Amino acid sequence: MKNLKPAANGPAKTPGAEVLNTVASYFRQYLVCDDHQLTILTLWAACTRFKQVFSTAPYLDIRSPEPCSGKTTCLNLLNLICYTKAFLTGVPAATLLARCLPEQCFEDPGMSENQPLFMLLLDDCHHTFNHSELQPALALLNSGSDSGSFFAWGQHDYYLFGPKAFAGNTRLPQSLAARCIPIVLRRPKPSEKFSRTLPDSEDGDVLAHSLKDWAEDISSALAKAAQNEPAQLPLALSPGQRRCVEPLIHIADFAGGAWPARARAAAVAVFDLAEASPQLQMLWDVRSIFRDKNNPEYLATSDLLSELRQMDSRPWCDWGTKSGKRLASHLRPFGIHSHHINRSQGEFYGYLCNDFQDAWERYLLPLSTATNSDKLPASYDGNGSYEGTQSPSLTGSITGISAIGAD
């Protein structure tokens, strides 16, 4: 790890890109994940070092296909270098409330900007979300994602705004998951070399001080920039997803170097098609079928089903020939219904291409912009403008999908 310790004659200003590069290298020693996940983790760690700068707080949903993939290790690493108010493991919902509420109560909601941020790491959270007290615990956590929200309990209001990270063996409740950026860790191969022993606190302290010093250097300018959304937000992001990643992209813009492009590419990639609902997958696949057939006026239900069954990676590959009702149930949430069509070749049920246009435009990235090569800002000069441009690489898990209900 690079030496980022302050000089003997006082703390030296360290370029943001260098700080973030060092944090990313630190994570890379212990976690098996792709570069996009690593980028989000690094920017999230930096985000915990800023106080009342952003109007939203990014949450992380740290998961893995199987146990023993590094979720707890990830939280331990974050705990070493982030500003953390609480790090809890496997607590029941009632215990979560009891531990989070003290010291977060105040009488004047108008003074929320003076309240300390509440950063929480919650491991084995499947235990928390499996009890009768789930709803108040969920309301508490949901309230912490927006700077203007408060959690009312008894006669008092509580302010729990701040970044939070959750790790567990089951999916998060939907309302909480919609506020999270998914981080998927993988179990290492026997041949992959990485450290199985957590670092000592000294290395974590060095990185923590570097992040803290850099955050203090740019905090005022960042707060000014954060009053507006970042430039060139990827079109593939839904409104809810944009709220999740905006603070991280602002931070990346101030860091400069390759980080503005990396942040935007990661923001698209981490919200993968696998995270989309089956209904949204269906909408995407039906558009592909219409496109491949040069967007005819209509397609018979039987023809759509025949094409869908040929998609080996989709749930509908096993559907039978008489699955019209199943298809209808996937399209009904978008207000799309089949029609009785009478043509020279006979009478049949089918779907009109025009009926899909609104949903395709509303929920899917336009096909012509699926690959975005626009210029992005490379670095922020601290005075309200950007210096230079950098072409991002938006390859990887770009799907053009915006998740339903993300906001």
Model description:
The chain has 407 residues and is of the alpha/beta class. The protein has 2 domains: 256 residues, Rossmann fold, CATH 3.40.50; 88 residues, Arc Repressor Mutant, subunit A (Orthogonal Bundle). It contains 13 helices and 13 strands. β12 and β13 form a beta hairpin. α1 crosses α2, α8 packs antiparallel against α9 and α10 crosses α13. The N terminus and C terminus are likely disordered.
Summary tags:
single chain, 407 residues, alpha/beta, Rossmann fold, Arc Repressor Mutant, subunit A, 2 domains, five-stranded parallel sheet, three-stranded antiparallel sheet, 13 helices, elongated, disordered N terminus, disordered C terminus
Helix count from the secondary structure assignment? 13
- Mean pLDDT over the residues: 81
- Secondary structure tally: strands: 13
Helix content: 25-40%
Task: State the end-to-end CA separation.
Answer: 39 Å
User: Could you tell me the radius of gyration in angstroms?
Assistant: 24 Å
Please give the order of strands in the largest beta sheet: 2-4-7-1-8
Uncertain segments are 1-13, 369-407
Strand content: 5-15%
In CATH, the architecture of the largest domain is 3-Layer(aba) Sandwich
Task: Determine the CATH topology of the largest domain.
Answer: Rossmann fold
**Can you identify the CATH class of the largest domain?**
Alpha Beta
